[in-house]
Specification:
The complex is a heterodimer of chains A (about 180) and B (about 425). Chain A is α+β, with helices and mostly antiparallel strands and about 180 residues long. Chain A has eight helices and four strands; from the N terminus they run αααααβααβββα. Chain B has three domains: about 210 residues, Rossmann fold; about 80 residues, Ubiquitin-like (UB roll) (Roll), CATH 3.10.20; about 100 residues, NADH-ubiquinone oxidoreductase 51kDa subunit, iron-sulphur binding domain (de novo design (two linked rop proteins), Up-down Bundle), CATH 1.20.1440.230. A five-stranded mixed β-sheet of chain B has the order 3-4-2-1-5, sandwiched between helices. Chain B has a five-stranded mixed β-sheet with strand order 9-8-14-11-12, with helices on one face. Chain B has a two-stranded antiparallel ribbon with strand order 6-7. Chain B is globular. In chain B, about 60% of the residues are buried. The mean pLDDT of chain B is about 95. Classes of the chains: A alpha+beta (about 180), B alpha/beta (about 425). Chains A and B meet through helix 3, helix 5 and helix 6 of A and strand 4, strand 8, strand 14 and helix 13 of B.
């Protein structure tokens, strides 16, 4: 029981504390994307809206930066797919996010070819330079540092992907210049 | 040069990936010929006669895959191009997507005609942004030119294409996981039978071919099977795009005619090993193929038969060159960390086995290895083999067994001395420092 005498789960004060960006009440709706999704649907075989799950989630994430609870609610209604299917997709694929991250998502490959061309030193350098550990966001919200598995750019290793863009043949000096340019 | 060039047979310029340039190189003329003068089964016949093998890693004969689809079964058929290029070391399909997207599209149109497909897909990995933009732009160009949509080139043939973007999953490059992903679900592989060519996407007959494999179709139809077979070797007709990386002077994508001498390719065409170091070994076709030592590659030609005789595979064409002095224990650690990360978790042997192997190699690297650890890695690898729905767990095992078989002494040294025999080196530069 909480101070107000209510069960903790129902205590409004506690609920407010638990409120995270993914279910904040004042988030804008993504329903304005519907015409875009309708155009997309035309190239799919009729009756298989389920296939739109990944493209819709990706587009919503592009606009919002992450996928919010209300986006799932909307897609369940719009695509007519089970909620569990969307939840599974969101947890299965590494590129989907349920929480906001830094403005620039710095993802460094650490697989075989990149490791052989200096990825480990590069990751240490990034971590030191940004003052964060892998998976963390800088306090100013500018950078989130991640490591990823093979990005398919082994010939120009090591490679760092910032948001959607590949930066190839990286070293400490080039990464410093790159970080400088990302405001 | 690395033999005759069929795919990379034009100079890459700022516009060479665009429709106008492709048409100036003769592009889409063969499509017109195919749609106006050939029957669908003629296309399949020609591709089968060409003897082209799958270029995604398994080297399955394309004609045999296509033959399962019955044109008169009254069902919709689907075609998916597998552009989920994720096998570490492999970046060859990216070259086609970025530089020859119309070659892929023309080939897919011919394949759709051959298999009577109304809707086809390209499943491209989510991280590929530039390749996606290039391909999507090419799709829009092709639609505007009337190569997709209704009544293509006035022949009554209709076909639509969707470029479907993945979202970060290695296992989705496996054909059945790929179609599950296109259905909008998490990418779990499916049990076979039924084969995907019997019940695939949306439970209908579906052909899934690698990007490079499909790109050969337009080339075969342009040259004719007989001419095509003059390139390469009798059992491995044509060419392979090889993406080479690691400790090599000239990394990149090369088109290699099957039968080309492997050592010559590495030492001459690719400039040999970085900083003049000796060659320790190569991973020939994606990290799931068995390593070949410098001695193993002597006298080997780059084709399926010769590579298999030497104890490995052509695989996905993703070649990694490893210099002398590189620590194979730490390299295997990087690989097992990857497999553990990418196991989808559906089958127990892979879900548990990958984690188990990762934990073992991790403690060896920390200097806490135990005497039975090497045998445990081999035992788990062998126990996984053939017990899972897809081949991912098997592949991790092959890679592990392959490395341990050749470099067991390094593992024994690491466990006994709590440190690497090669000072933990992965890079060549640090080896010199």
């Amino acid at each position: 029981m909480s101070a107000s005498g209510r069960p903790e789960a129902l205590d409004p004060e506690r609920q407010a504390q638990r409120e995270s960006p993914i279910n904040a009440p004042n988030l804008p709706s993504m329903r304005h994307l519907q015409p875009e999704f309708e155009a997309l649907k035309k190239r799919y075989p009729a009756g298989f809206q389920s296939s739109l799950t990944l493209p819709c989630l990706r587009r919503i994430q592009e606009v919002r930066g992450f996928v919010a609870d209300q986006d799932i609610d909307w897609l369940v209604e719009y695509l007519g797919v089970p909620r569990v299917q969307i939840e599974e997709v969101l947890t299965f694929y590494t590129q989907f996010r349920r929480e906001p991250i830094g403005r620039w998502h710095v993802q460094t490959c650490r697989n075989v070819s990149c490791s052989m061309r200096g990825a480990e030193r590069l990751i240490d350098h990034l971590s030191r330079k940004l003052g964060v550990k892998i998976g963390e966001t800088t306090p100013d919200g500018r950078f989130t540092l991640s490591v990823v598995e093979c990005l398919g750019s082994c010939g120009t290793a090591p490679v760092v992907m910032v948001n959607d863009t590949y930066h190839e043949n990286m070293d400490a000096a080039r990464i410093d210049a790159l970080l400088e340019s990302l405001k | 040069m690395t033999g005759r060039q069929l795919i990379m047979d034009f100079p890459v310029t700022a516009t060479s990936h665009l429709l106008a340039d492709y048409q100036a190189r003769g592009g889409y003329q063969t499509l017109r010929k195919v749609l106006t003068t050939l029957k669908p089964e003629d296309v399949t016949k020609e591709v089968t006669a060409a003897g082209v093998l799958g270029h995604g890693g398994a080297a399955f004969p394309v004609g045999r895959k296509w033959a399962v689809v019955k044109l008169d079964d009254g069902q919709p058929h689907y075609l998916c191009a597998n552009a989920d290029e994720g096998e570490p070391g492999t970046f060859k399909d990216r070259w086609i997507l970025e530089h020859a997207p119309h070659l892929l599209l023309e080939s897919m149109l011919m394949t759709c005609y051959a298999l009577q497909v109304r809707n086809c897909f390209v499943y491209i990995r989510g991280e590929f942004d530039q390749p996606y933009r290039r391909l999507q732009a090419a799709v829009e160009e092709a639609y505007a030119a009337g190569y997709f949509g209704e009544n293509i080139l006035g022949t009554g043939f209709a076909c639509d294409i969707v470029v479907y973007r993945g979202a970060g999953s290695y296992v989705c490059g496996e054909a059945s996981a790929l179609i599950t992903s296109i259905e909008g679900k998490k990418g779990y592989p499916r049990n076979r039978p039924p084969r995907l060519t019997v019940r695939g996407l949306y439970q209908r007959p579906t052909v899934i071919n690698n990007v490079e494999t499909l790109s050969n179709v337009a080339i075969i139809m342009r040259m004719g099977a007989e001419e095509f077979r003059k390139v390469g070797k009798p059992k491995s007709p044509g060419t392979q795009l090889v993406s080479i990386s690691g400790h090599v002077n000239k990394p990149g994508v090369y088109e290699v005619e099957y039968g080309y001498p492997l050592a010559k390719f590495i030492y001459e065409d690719c400039g040999g090993v970085l900083a003049g170091r000796g060659l320790k070994c190569i991973i020939p076709g994606g990290i799931s193929t068995k390593v070949m030592t410098a001695k193993d590659i002597e006298g080997v030609t780059y084709d399926h038969k010769s590579m298999e005789a030497a104890g490995s595979q052509v695989g996905s064409g993703g070649m990694v060159v490893i210099a002398e002095g590189t620590c194979m224990v730490r390299l295997l650690h990087v690989m097992l960390r990857f497999y553990h990360h990418e196991s989808c978790g559906q089958c127990t042997p892979c879900r548990e086995g990958m984690g188990w192997m990762h934990r073992i190699i991790e403690r060896i690297v920390r200097g806490e290895g135990q005497p039975g650890d090497i045998d445990a890695l081999v035992r788990i690898s062998n126990a996984n083999d053939g017990t899972t729905i897809c081949g991912m767990g098997d592949a991790a095992g092959y890679a592990t067994v392959g490395i341990i078989a050749k470099y067991r002494d390094e593992f024994e040294y690491y466990i006994a001395n709590k440190r690497s025999k090669c000072e933990g080196r992965l890079e060549v530069e640090t080896a010199h420092a």
